[in-house]
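Q: Is it fine to ask for two folds in a single conversation?
A: Yes, each is treated on its own. Send the first.
Q: Here.
A: Result:
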Amino acid sequence: MAFWIHVTPRARRKGVGGTHGGALRVAVSEAPVAGAANAACARALARALGVGRAAVALDRASRGRRKRVRIEGDAEALAARLRELAAEPAAD
């Protein structure tokens, strides 16, 4: 399953929830330096979706805040959880 996320690095409050421009919002406290924010983003998504870290892959070509993500797992369960997360208030 693939979808878009909007990453907020250096966020005061970390979390996954809400949307920004049609993409799932992911807020991390790490700075966008040397891939730290991307790694934190992948960990946060894995935790929020209930999958292992290895099941989350960020598109390596994605630069900036909007990124394409691919998650491996039960598509129906992941889609349901994504809908729940998108309906939650934004983390930031």
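Q: Second one now.
A: Result:
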Amino acid sequence: MSGELGKNLATVGKAAGVRVTQRGAQVRVAGEEAAVQLAVRVLEQLYGLAASGVAITGPDVEQAVRLLEAAPGSRLEDFHGDVVLVGARKRAIYPRTPTQKTYIHAFTDHDIVFGLGPAGTGKTYLAMAVAVAALLADKVKRIVLCRPAVEAGEKLGFLPGDLEEKVNPYLRPLHDALRDMVDEERGARLFQKGVIEVAPLAFMRGRTLSDSFIILDEAQNTTPEQMKMFLTRLGNGSRAAVTGDMSQVDLPRQQRSGLVEAVGVLADVPRIAMVHFTDRDVVRHPVVSDIVRAYDRGRAGEGRGQRS
């Protein structure tokens, strides 16, 4: 923290709701008792990480405050030490919440892992990090990334270009995440050789994928038939991640979500894990957590109004 000590102290103060000042080597924290205790825990643990050589950024500080507020007994070093992958630009990718930690460890003991919850919780990003780590360690020979091409306000037919160009906007988030994990030149080679493949879900029909790590993103927009088709593509030596937010279904109103059905049908199947994320696991801008909570409260209010 030494390089940006003043900035990070201010960030701790703002996130914890206290006033943090520094005079020489002394740091003073003032505010309500519970908030002061939280800020002190955060500062002590951040200083410990910095002393061990971990670079601390502003977002790291904000996440540390949220983590230690939600789980006071947690230790930041347990998360920073659980590195999934050191990606492009030497950036370490590691779990930032207890649920994220449970999620990445679920891939060790399960063939299929469902990551369920709101946007910004790292469901797809961490699954891709696990997949890339497995590829680099020669545990799988290929990564296949797919998602359903479901329109959310704009029809595919009105988008310019051929089929590949039409579906590319739906797959762009997967490309963006990969860019964080593999440098551009190496990533291009892996795509050219077919080691990493990005494709619409419809292209999976009829295939059997062996020795592969397969990720289905935005799975809430699959139909039950598509979900069953995807899950039965797994061949020997393959693992799969299925990620989605069951509150963000873009299917026609009368169409049941394949993800919703699968969560109920497969809950007790061995070697399948269901990991549920909440707004506490959001690791994007702090306002995203507030947005998720606000929408959840709104839906709950609508539900009460409909029942009354």
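Q: Anything structural to flag on that second result?
A: Two points. The beta strands are 19-23, 26-30, 85-86, 92-93, 112-116, 142-147, 196-200, 212-216, 239-244, 272-276. The first strand starts at residue 19 and ends at 23.
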